[in-house]
Amino acid sequence: MSPAILLLLAFGLSLLGWLAARSRAWAFRRKDPQVRLHSLPNFHGWYVALWVGVPALLFAALWAAISPALITGHVLADPASAVLPNFGFERETLLAEARSVATGRAFGVFNEEAQALVAPYRTAITLFDSIGLVVTILVAFAGGAFAFLRLKPDFTARTRVERAVMALLLIASLVAILTTIGIIASLVFETIRFFGMVSPLDFLFGTHWSPDPMSAGAPDGSEYGAIPLFWGTIYIGAIIAMIVAIPLGLMSAIFLTQYASNTVRKVVKPLLEVLAGVPTVVYGYFAALTVAPMVRDAAHAIGITNASTESAMAAGLVMGVMIIPFVSSMADDSIAAVPQAMRDGSLAMGATTAETIRKVIVPAALPGIVAGVMLAISRAIGETMIVVMAAGASANLTGNPFESMTTVTFQIVAMLTGEGSFDHPATLSAFALGMVLFLVTLTLNFIALRVVKRYREAYE
Amino acid sequence: MNAEAIHTEVKAETTPYFDAPLKMSAKNVSVYYGDKRAIDDVSIDIPQRYVTAFIGPSGCGKSTFLRSLNRMNDTIANARVEGEITLDGDDIYRSGMDVVQLRARVGMVFQKPNPFPKSIYENIAYGPRIHGITGSKAELDEIVEQSLRRAGLWDEVKDRLADSGTALSGGQQQRLCIARAIAVDPEVILMDEPCSALDPIATARIEELIDDLRSRYAIVIVTHSMQQAARVSQRTAFFHLGKVVEYGKTSDIFTNPREERTKDYITGRYG
What we know:
heterodimer; B: 6-stranded mixed β-sheet; 25% strand
């Protein structure tokens, strides 16, 4: 029985329940015009529909989970299964093969022994599918009958349906939270394994990064000092990119909120937002193919001879451009949140627009702007594609922006997509790096959101 | 009654009242927001060292007219002013008029207290600084103290000048805003319903203050409270539907209005 058919069945029955309950609710009123329904007929409909659909779907899901085991059990109880070897790999293979043929996914058996099991499999599958179907329908009807019999004019269908909707919303929000917790848990376990092989002190404070994913495993002369990666990440994401993004983003926000006419604003703002929607991989090849050679040539022209094609500068510049819309829109919001009265107050004192912006509006909006910058940094240091394509792979600990540098995100990609096995410290180092990155961006976001919140309170 | 008639009538009947020298004068002023005419052919003289009150029902244009006296309407994108407004005989809408200078001479206090999110000291020092009135710290201290004294706030805040201006009570904030306006030594102070956000006690303090300030400045106050207009002003203009219905001595307006509409309004028949 395919899940799609069960799903359709459940929805169809729900619809029937909805219609039946609604007409029953209308009937209450027709029978006695004096009667006042507690809830609208539609809510009676939804109440019954939920009682039909939800238990049936839950049962169908449960059945889908347990029926394969039941089917196999049934086949093994069949005398034909006597041909199977007692345990091990072959036994599983034969069973799988027979199952494939029985469900029509394969046309013939490879091992002769499996042939004998095909027929029992067919019987078992038909049997358990029918059981599943019948019980699902029974559950649907039982739920529907239970709900339908409770309908009365003063039945509180609306409150119950609203409670169900609230539960649904709660579950939806829990999904995101649980996923986050799941991510943290998986990172934590792998990180602990990594720190079992490499000392956390060496990792956090070491200045040489030279893992060898193809080696036999520690000790192999690999070094896992992540300082050059942290430095590369900060240099590209938090320094070079921000030197580009903060002034440009802030100035464009000031222009858009304070000087631009409505027409200009209507055109420029969406264009700026389009910049935020460009896939980062596009920025990546723009950085690698266009900006990086230009940066290298410019460096050579001013006499820096060791400039390489892959440079921190190229990646940082492009990343800065990518971040402009974030800084600009956060700054725009917080400048717009400064009350007009503040601006009027300053202008009425005889201040010029420029003085008003510099001395009143920007200081008042500063917390929001700072928060925007922090969010932008957290995004920049988590950014992967641009640095993969433009920054290079060599873990240089240098202040020269024209040299190749590598970042945390780049190394995560490099370590996880390599040939190394999953119990090799080089591969596991990716999780430790991810953990560090996760903690740093989490902290930045947390602080930024706190700042924004405090600031909002101040003006409301 | 058409605009022409009001105009001549106002002119004819009120001129004798203006024994005081004129500070500002509006002649045939109309203000438009886009196509909508908010002020329709208003002519009013603002005398020196008097408090002039603008009263009238909501939406009658009194705040709009007030804002055109220091060109604050310039900050509204589609606002347009026609007619002539003069300050000491000088047309403030002429081309080449420096709005910055104008607003330093014609200060403004708003309906809702709007201190800057800076210290009390910095709030007052803001104007003198941007106008380069003084370079020395001692002189600035002097201006801050004097402004706060004139606004009747000095004794309450002298020990906490470094505290944020927004931490003061509503009434104190409004007096801070008045002190801020005084600090640049203006000639005219415009007040747009300065007490509408305040309780009766704070209102009484501001009204006393307005009376004190009258000796130095020409004051124009927009108010919704007729009692307030009667208490603080010497001249009152009654606005209705963008026109000035009647303008004259406050005592005359309130005890012996010439216009039926004025009488209806001040006796609470409408508005």
